[in-house]
Amino acid sequence: MKRLLTLIAATAGIALAAQNPVFIPDAYNSDPQARVWTVDGEERLFIYGSRDENTAYYCSRRYDVFSTTDMIHWRGGESFSSDEVPYNNEFLYAPDCMEKDGKYYLYYSQSGSGFVEGTAVCDSPYGPFRDGKPVEWAQQIDPSVFVDDDGTAWLFWGQFSAKCAKLNPDMRSIDPTTIRDGIITESEHHFHEGIQAFKHNGTYYLVFADISRRGTPTCLGYATSDSVTGPYTYRGVIIDNFGCDPAVWNNHGSVACFKGQWYVFYHRSSCGSVTMRSTCIEPIEILPDGSIPEVRMTSTGAGDPLSPFVDDNLPARACMLKGHVRIDRDLHLSGIRGGDMAEWINFDFLVSPTTFSITVIPNTGGRIRVATDLLYKAPLATIEVPSGDGQTPITLEAKLNSSPIGVLPLRLLFDGPDTSDLFTIVSFSFKI
Description:
five-stranded antiparallel beta sheet, single chain
């Protein structure tokens, strides 16, 4: 929390991360809604999101917003609090924000019953947003706003069956006579929740949490139409976060174009929980036929490949985890059992290293195979980890069997009993 408060107080850009997850270790930011605006003469990309604070529940009573001009340096912090909602103090779920005539309108949703959605307003896109008021007729979570070419603003929301309605000129209420239900549905479009609308080359897109795989909403899917109210045709999956954590259950995000490049914004779970989610970013394409090819999770995100010669937060940038292993609150890899695997995409071996070094906290002990090939037929190195007390870190090194060069994935395979924790990985790096 101290690190987050430092971030909130900042008035200049802070180099947090270009790679995934974007805001670790300063903030667990989920449900990322991306907006692009020109502020003070600079084109900036803003990410509005929920703040996760605990493995026992989703979200919190705080929202955060972060912005960047280059996808590397970010500024921001707390944007809104349920203290600004006079009629309840419920947790805040996924937000959105929209600008009109120099004012910024935050759209929030809350747990509980009664007035679920509301709006607050500020002269700055960073907040703090004030004067929370309910949006009558919108009684489900996850609001999102779309402004069409003619200036008409639409509010989308809902679970299982998406709804939309025209926003009134005040941007804080809807015209109930325009409410449409079933814009997309679970049965026809695999829609679960977390909708976003945008328009590209005359085509309307809806992006949403998609249950088409495994029956859980780990995907971001999309549907398209030639009308804002549909009918919409399901087009497929943009990204699937399955494999980011053994307990992952949902995804939520958005799509935006910033300085000529399209991106998908999504979150990954951590800590062996469905919560404690972190914002991640991947470049995407929209093809001439309007389709969006699926992309996979990476460690690089919108930034350069990772450096294998530093150990700053490298365990937490694993993009695929198999088995019981998870990224914990200390940004270590823990819960490791035999047969588990961790993968990073990608590392840039500008020069060939000679040695692999890893700091672990041994428990039962086991073996680590280090490889850049999927089948581990030719591991770069093998590390034998002795048993330990589960508290004391040790550093182990091994000479490499070959010399990796270029941009390559990295995979660690863990051998040992599959019934007990073998060790925790604190950090690792390669040496020349």
